[in-house]
From TrEMBL:
Family assignment from sequence similarity: Belongs to the band 7/mec-2 family. HflC subfamily.
Subcellular location: Membrane
Region Disordered, residue ranges: 283-389
GO cellular component entries: membrane
Protein known as: Modulator of FtsH protease HflC
SMART domains, sorted: PHB
Species of provenance: Methyloligella halotolerans
Residue ranges of every copy of the Band domain listed in the record: 21-183
C-alpha cells in the first residue's frame, strides 16, 4: 500500500508539472510566437490562457503596444547648403511577430536598425527641402513623407511606422553665432538710422527755434529803433523849442558843451587864433561880451600870435583860459581855425598846418582891405602874425 501511494503521488506530481508546462498566458499588451524545436509553430495575438507541448514548444513574447525609436541630434544639410541640427523620433507597432522574429529576432536589435533607417531617411528628405519648408512651411508634410519611406524600408520586418516627429531644428553653433552677429549688425544699423532721424529732427527743430529767435530779435531791434527815433524826435523838438525861446542862451549852452568836450583834456597843445568864432564867449575880460565878428585881441586879453595851450578848464574861467595861452614852439605859425560849429557838439580840435595858417591870414587880409567895418581891429594884429612867422 505504501508503494502504491508513493507511485500515485509521483504520477500526480508529474501530471501537475506537465499541466503547468502545457499552459501559458498572453497579456493584453503582448503577442506570442510559439516555436517548436526552434521553428515557428503558431502566432498568438489574443490575450488569455493557451496550451503548448511541454518540453517541446517554446513561447516568445513581443510587445503589442506602440514602440518608439529615438535618434541622437544629427546635422542635416538642407537645400541651399544650410546646415541644420535635427532631433527626431518615430513610433511603430509590431504587426507580424513571425516576420519580426525572422528579420530582427528581438526588439533590441530592431531598435538599433530602425534608428539607422530613420537617420538616413531624415537626411534624404530634409536635404531636398529648403530651410523655410523644414522650419515653417512644410514641416507636417515632410514628417508624413519620412514615415512613408520608413514603412517602405521596413515593410518586410513585420512592423508599421505610425508617424515620425521632428522635436527640434536648430542651427549649428558656428551658424548660430554668425546669425546672431548678423542680427546684431541689423539692429545696430536700425539704431543708427533712428539716431540719424533723431539728429535730423533735432537740427530741424533747432533751426526753427534759431529762426524764430532771429525774427524776434529783429522785431525787438526794430521796435527799439522806432522808440529811439521817437525819443530823438522828441528831444529835437525840445531843443528846437528851447532855441526858439532864447537863441542866445541856447548858443551859449552849446558853446559851453563844446568847450568842455574840446578843452577838457590838459595833455594836448592847441594853436588857435583868439579872434575865432569858437572863442567869442571869452571876451568878457574886457568888460562885456563881444559880438561874433569882433577880433580885438587886446580887448579879449590875448596877445597876438599867442599859442593857446589850455590848462584845466574845469577850474579856470573863460577869461583865464583865454589869457593863459602857451608859447608857440619854434616859430610855429598861428592861424585861425574853428574846432566846432556854433550850436554843435565838438569832439576835438584839428591842429592846422603852417600852409593853411598862411592861406587863412591872406584871406583875412583881403577881407580887411575890402571892408574895414567887418574886421574890427585886426589890422594891427596881422603885422604881428607876419613877424611871428
Amino acid at each position: 500500500m505504501r508503494i502504491a501511494s508513493i507511485v500515485a503521488l509521483v504520477l500526480i506530481a508529474l501530471a501537475a508539472v506537465t499541466a503547468y508546462l502545457s499552459l501559458f498566458t498572453v497579456d493584453p499588451t503582448e503577442q506570442a510566437l510559439v516555436l517548436r524545436f526552434g521553428e515557428p509553430k503558431q502566432v498568438i495575438k489574443t490575450p488569455g490562457l493557451h496550451t503548448k507541448v511541454p518540453f517541446v514548444d517554446n513561447v516568445l513574447y513581443f510587445d503589442s503596444r506602440v514602440l518608439e525609436v529615438d535618434t541622437a541630434p544629427q546635422e542635416v544639410i538642407a537645400s541651399g547648403q544650410k546646415r541644420l541640427v535635427v532631433d527626431a523620433f518615430a513610433r511603430y507597432r509590431i504587426t507580424d511577430p513571425l516576420l519580426f522574429y525572422q528579420s530582427v529576432t528581438d526588439e533590441q536589435n530592431a531598435r538599433g536598425l530602425f534608428a539607422n533607417y530613420l537617420e538616413s531617411t531624415l537626411r534624404g528628405v530634409l536635404g531636398a527641402s529648403t530651410f523655410e519648408a523644414i522650419v515653417r512651411d512644410r514641416r507636417d508634410e515632410l514628417m508624413t513623407v519620412i514615415a512613408k519611406e520608413m514603412n517602405e524600408k521596413t515593410g518586410s520586418y513585420g512592423v508599421d511606422f505610425l508617424n515620425v516627429r521632428i522635436k527640434r531644428v536648430d542651427l549649428p553653433d558656428a551658424n548660430s553665432d554668425a546669425i546672431y552677429r548678423r542680427m546684431n549688425t541689423e539692429r545696430q544699423r536700425e539704431a543708427a538710422e533712428f539716431r540719424a532721424e533723431g539728429e535730423g529732427a533735432s537740427r530741424r527743430i533747432r533751426g526753427t527755434a534759431d529762426r524764430e529767435v532771429t525774427v524776434l530779435k529783429a522785431n525787438a531791434q526794430g521796435e527799439a529803433e522806432r522808440i529811439r527815433g521817437d525819443g530823438d524826435a522828441k528831444r529835437n523838438r525840445i531843443f528846437a523849442g528851447a532855441f526858439g525861446q532864447d537863441p542866445d542862451f541856447f548858443a551859449f549852452y552849446r558853446s559851453m558843451q563844446a568847450y568842455r568836450s574840446a578843452l577838457g583834456q590838459n595833455d594836448t597843445r592847441f594853436l588857435l587864433s583868439p579872434d575865432s568864432q569858437f572863442f567869442r564867449y571869452f571876451g568878457d575880460a574886457a568888460g562885456g561880451p563881444e559880438t561874433p565878428g569882433s577880433t580885438n585881441t587886446e580887448k579879449q586879453g590875448l596877445a597876438p600870435n599867442a599859442s593857446f595851450a589850455p590848462k584845466d578848464t574845469s577850474q579856470a574861467g573863460p577869461d583865464e583860459g583865454a589869457s593863459e595861452g602857451g608859447e608857440s614852439q619854434d616859430g610855429a605859425e598861428a592861424g585861425d581855425t574853428e574846432a566846432s560849429e556854433i550850436g554843435g557838439d565838438a569832439a576835438g580840435i584839428e591842429v592846422p598846418s603852417a600852409d593853411s595858417v598862411e592861406q587863412q591870414q591872406s584871406s583875412d587880409a583881403a577881407k580887411e582891405d575890402a571892408g574895414p567895418a567887418n574886421s574890427g581891429g585886426t589890422s594891427g594884429a596881422e603885422p604881428e602874425l607876419e613877424a611871428a612867422q
